[in-house]
Amino acid sequence: MEVSGRTGTGSVTSRALRVLEVFSAAEPVLTLTEISRLSQLPLTTAHRLVNELAEWGALERSPDGGYRIGLRLWEVAALAPRGLGLRETALPYLSDLARVTGENVQLAVREELSVVYVERLAGRGSVPVLTRVGGRFALTPTGVGRVLLAHAPAEVQESVLAQPPARYTERTECDAGRLRQALAEVRRTGVAVCERQVTMDSVSVAAPVHGTGAEVVAAVSVVAHVDAVEAHTLVPLVQVAASGISRSLGAPSPAPPARSRR
Amino acid sequence: MEVSGRTGTGSVTSRALRVLEVFSAAEPVLTLTEISRLSQLPLTTAHRLVNELAEWGALERSPDGGYRIGLRLWEVAALAPRGLGLRETALPYLSDLARVTGENVQLAVREELSVVYVERLAGRGSVPVLTRVGGRFALTPTGVGRVLLAHAPAEVQESVLAQPPARYTERTECDAGRLRQALAEVRRTGVAVCERQVTMDSVSVAAPVHGTGAEVVAAVSVVAHVDAVEAHTLVPLVQVAASGISRSLGAPSPAPPARSRR
């Protein structure tokens, strides 16, 4: 049973995962030939792995004959505590925030050196946002990203600050020193305000969500049109929503506002 | 590279998937010993597979030292067109339906012989529902399930009707003949109304969502307190929401109401 040995076995698991990895939001349906090319696996290997993944339901045939990520994988992945689990807890608070503000509301976590969006409620008539549930984005130019980075381990902060971020607009902050200052400000005030960092017409206001050990496990933001709102009026709303989610997650107590600290 | 051969290779992929499969909503965090026991894999095999899955991010360590489904798997699974893809398209319509009715709103697809819930918006003060996003449920006692089953291939219908469903309440319909009639009624009227089938205090009203080829790809329902609403008043609301989602998915035209058929 185990004759293929450690290397062979590891190789098979990682190749199966590599097949799953080639699907993207831009290319959610792929042919076998495309899977083989994108995963850099020989056609026969790709064929066998695709069949095995399809048999279990990790992949499924699409009506046009290609392959797509299967519902069975989504069912298992729905158990990820940092994905749907977090989102289930947070949704009522996010809905309230969306209803009260009429703006875009986002919930995100950090995965390695990126933001991953766990939920996004689009405001009607609000500013368009570039994000997608399950999608990644840079940490430094977004409100949620700055909150998550401000509370990340020092080595994560250094890795992020060591690479100049992409310049989305002429205002995108790319200076490591000023970003470091901004992160300190986020820790001090308990809120991140990012103006015109991703698009010239948007502002995001974000606050941290705390877990059972008071650690920062997620961030909530409102993204609005920069000319349509005073960002400071959004701050308490975002903080109240973040505190509600934290409490539902079992955080020991709401994050104390800066001025009550000694 | 390929010396382990078809059987050995298939075995490894399926064992890796078997490791993912042992996680559940009831047990979202498991120790290595538990994974080994639940997957019926030897501890050394489980250990190796868990390490490989964790390295890629399909599993991650939880703060208490156990393993849980990882965010990376959730990111990939977010690409499942029948999961988050469908849900993204449907969410604005579901939110409208929830706001207008104040009741529970559900979006579901069929996977084999079960309903899988893709979205659920809980109504404040509405009747409690037993479902969970990513969770499965029986087809015959639920509104969404009856819609999906009514439009499923004949062999799926026969497989479902051949097994007597669980009796959730004294009213749960378990007779294959009457269920067959109910499914015909769903096809004729374009709507399913299920009273007191899962709990004695609930009624669900469901309508089909159509895909690009007019095939039924999902179902939408409102679940309300049976004494608080007249179910027939919910019918046009659910149908309008379902039609909106169908149109957004590229369905050729709204499903024609029964009375316009010849």
UniProtKB/TrEMBL annotation, chains A, B:
Keywords, comma-separated and alphabetical: DNA-binding, Transcription, Transcription regulation
Protein name (database record): IclR family transcriptional regulator
Keyword Glycosyltransferase on entry: no
Pfam families reported in the protein's UniProt record: HTH_IclR (PF09339), IclR_C (PF01614)
SMART domains in alphabetical order: HTH_ICLR
InterPro entries recorded: GAF-like_dom_sf (IPR029016), HTH_MetabolicPath_Reg (IPR050707), Tscrpt_reg_IclR_C (IPR014757), Tscrpt_reg_IclR_N (IPR005471), WH-like_DNA-bd_sf (IPR036388), WH_DNA-bd_sf (IPR036390)
Taxonomy of the source species: Bacteria, Bacillati, Actinomycetota, Actinomycetes, Kitasatosporales
Transcription listed as a keyword: yes
SUPFAM superfamilies linked: GAF domain-like (SSF55781), Winged helix' DNA-binding domain (SSF46785)
Domain annotation HTH iclR-type: ranges: 10-71
Protein's organism: Streptomyces daqingensis
Domain of life of the source: Bacteria
Boundaries of every IclR-ED domain copy: 72-251
